[in-house]
Design brief:
Elements (H helix, E strand, L loop, with lengths): L10 E6 L8 H17 L10 E6 L6 H11 L3 H4 L1 E6 L5 H11 L4 E6 L2 E3 L3 H6 L9 E8 L4 H9 L21 E5 H6 L11 H11 L5 E9 L5 H22 L4 H26 L10 H23 L18
Helix pairs in contact: 6-11, 9-11, 10-11
């Protein structure tokens, strides 16, 4: 058992519930069960108030009691260890949920955890430790994709997240993931995730803001395992929106005209295809993939990232509608 009484608690853990729409409830319950274990194993200073668990969903705030009842029914001990707060923000998107949850929190440290990610042993202690240094503004953990099938093993190998095993060199190069990061509360409430129409663009813009202000991320061995990506409709849409976001990031940061954006799309597409082929061929054993599944995995990965490439090119030429990106209803639990 760790003693964190010297650390800057109280802390608040913000959990968006948008991702819960794309997985089964028992997977969400696994996250809450793991969180209970983490809080219990890391006792607070008795003089400090209970930590906050802020669950924020995109429905009406009047429905928050239903979420509260569902969570406490699954993990009744949670309210003994923490102050559970359930909030609603109608039609809000991923980063809007996180921002508003943070603004409603009071913790000296704000920790972001997604509803589809399960924290592993030692996660909470690792996230809090860097903030014993008053100069620390942000700490970033390691998010890995879980796997339980050929499709999810393929994506665990080729997704933006590093592998759980195998001394993956991408761990050292990881950015700040909004699903597994901690911030100094006072700083984040003044510098929330920037608003953007893209699906997962605000993370990139926020990392740029941190860099401009001279704040370096403190990398920590705080691991969360993201639920396996699954469902044909969801995966096709995810590949498509990933391509759109790739061009949106270029525009937001570089502001390039379309010829340079097209060149970036081609370069990005080739690099991504090369990466996925190498990782499947060279690292498939780290996800327990039998050798005879490797050819099928290669076809699936190449197809996934080909969809991403065509979406990025379509975005370059303005062939796609604008407006804020939402998870379509047809992909939920698909």
């Amino acid at each position: 058992m760790s003693d964190l009484s010297h650390l800057p608690v109280p802390y608040s853990i913000i959990i968006e519930m948008e991702n819960a729409e794309t997985i089964e409830w028992h997977e969400v319950a696994d996250m809450f069960q793991a969180l209970v274990s983490q809080i219990r194993e890391n006792p607070r200073d008795p003089r400090s108030p209970l930590p906050e668990i802020v669950c924020i969903h995109e429905g009406e705030d009047t429905d928050s009691h239903l979420l509260y009842e569902k969570v406490t029914q699954e993990v009744p001990e949670l309210t003994e260890l923490a102050k559970l707060i359930c909030l609603g923000l109608p039609d809000a998107r991923y980063y809007e949920l996180k921002n508003n949850g943070a603004l409603k929190s009071t913790g000296d440290v704000i920790i972001f955890l997604d509803s589809d990610s399960v924290p592993q042993p030692g996660w909470l202690e690792a996230m809090l430790k860097p903030f014993a240094d008053p100069q620390t503004v942000v700490a970033g953990g390691i998010t890995c994709l879980g796997y339980d099938s050929l499709v999810s093993r393929t994506l665990a190998l080729t997704w933006i997240f590093p592998l759980i095993h195998g001394n993956d060199p991408e761990v050292a190069r990881r950015p700040v993931y909004a699903n597994n990061a901690a911030f100094r509360g006072t700083w984040f409430r003044e510098n929330p995730f920037p608003s953007h129409d893209g699906f997962k663009v605000s993370c990139t813009l926020h990392c740029r803001l941190l860099k401009e202000q001279g704040h370096a991320m403190v990398p920590v061995d705080a691991i969360t395992v993201h639920a396996p990506l699954r469902g044909f409709r969801f995966l096709v849409w995810r590949a498509w929106v990933t391509g759109r976001d790739a061009d949106r990031k270029v525009v937001a940061i570089k502001g390039y005209a379309w010829p340079r954006r097209l060149l970036r799309a081609i370069k990005h597409g080739l690099q991504t295809q090369k990466r996925c082929v190498l990782r499947i061929v060279c690292r498939s054993h780290y996800v327990d993939m039998p050798w005879y599944q490797v050819p099928v995995a290669l076809v699936m990965a190449i197809t996934f990232y080909a969809i991403m490439f065509f979406a990025q090119v379509a975005e370059v030429f303005g062939m796609l509608p604008g407006g804020p990106e939402h998870i379509p209803h047809f992909v939920e639990n698909s």
